[in-house]
Amino acid sequence: MKNSYLTKILEELVQIPSPSGFxxxxxxxxxxxxxxxxxxxxxxxxGSCVVSLGGDGSPLVLNAHVDTLGAMVKSLKVTGRVEFTCxxxxxxxxxxGENCRVHTQTGETxxxxxxxxxxxxxxxxxxxxxxxxxxxxxxxxxxxVKSKEDLQSLGVEPGNFVSIDPRFMLTPSGFVxxxxxxxxxxxxxxxxxxxxxxEENLALERKxxxxxxxxxxxxxxxxxxIPEDAEEVISVDMGAVGDTLETSEYVVSICAKDxxxxxxxxxxxxxxxxxxxxxxxxxxDIYPFYGSDAGASLRAGYDVRFGLIGPGxxxxxxxxxxxxxxxxxxxxxxVHYASG
Length: 340
Ligand SMILES: [Zn+2]
Fold this sequence. Notes:
By secondary structure, this protein is an alpha+beta fold.
């Protein structure tokens, strides 16, 4: 593939469990990766990761979120099964039959499967028809647990984070199938930018920061910790694909409007001009049910120009898919936008 660093770092990122609120392992990984390329990242009190890539003039913040969808143990059932609550917004159809991990307070991890409470067609006459809503779903742990007490003796308790297995796959045809491409794909692209500045000796036209937020899926990711001198914030998050949208799994999507309203027209225009000038495959789109970290920054009161771009991701918040073309188009757009 054209840019093997991108897919390699993306695979490493999706394998690190990081539902919102459980992100210290992935931020440590990012700090180490940035240090490896000779940068000096720091973390905010909240835990977001920030780094300056250098450059002078009109500070630009490129932001991606490291947190993902996930779940949390809600209660322990007398049957030894686990009731859970969702972290982020997803359908029960999209996680039914999926393997997961329960992370206890002592650092132990137990594997399990998310399934309906009528999982077998040989036993339950409502196996097909039972409504797939939270109260009809549970986690079956891969341990000999037959009671609430058995779960307790393992250290499983309400508040434990649950991560969903990514099932990462890179196909010979260049498709990347995995959960959590939202927004580990954006994180991978930003780390790739940090690498390319070093390896390709690119000069920045302006001051550029990378900002990795940790609570985007629950709405307040980039609401604090943005560098004080920021003049422009661009969120690099998944591009929505489907229905009448123009975005595909092969392009970098430039968002003109989402649920929060229009993006800054000056930023959208500048991104489109950059894509055209450098023959980057892009689309401009309107996402009907979507909010971004840029929106969180604005609602928090930051006085900045703002934009949103990202690789097209099919089946978002389910078993997602993109293509290496979308990743490299996003990387190229950012490189040219930042370095002129
Ligand atoms: Zn996202």
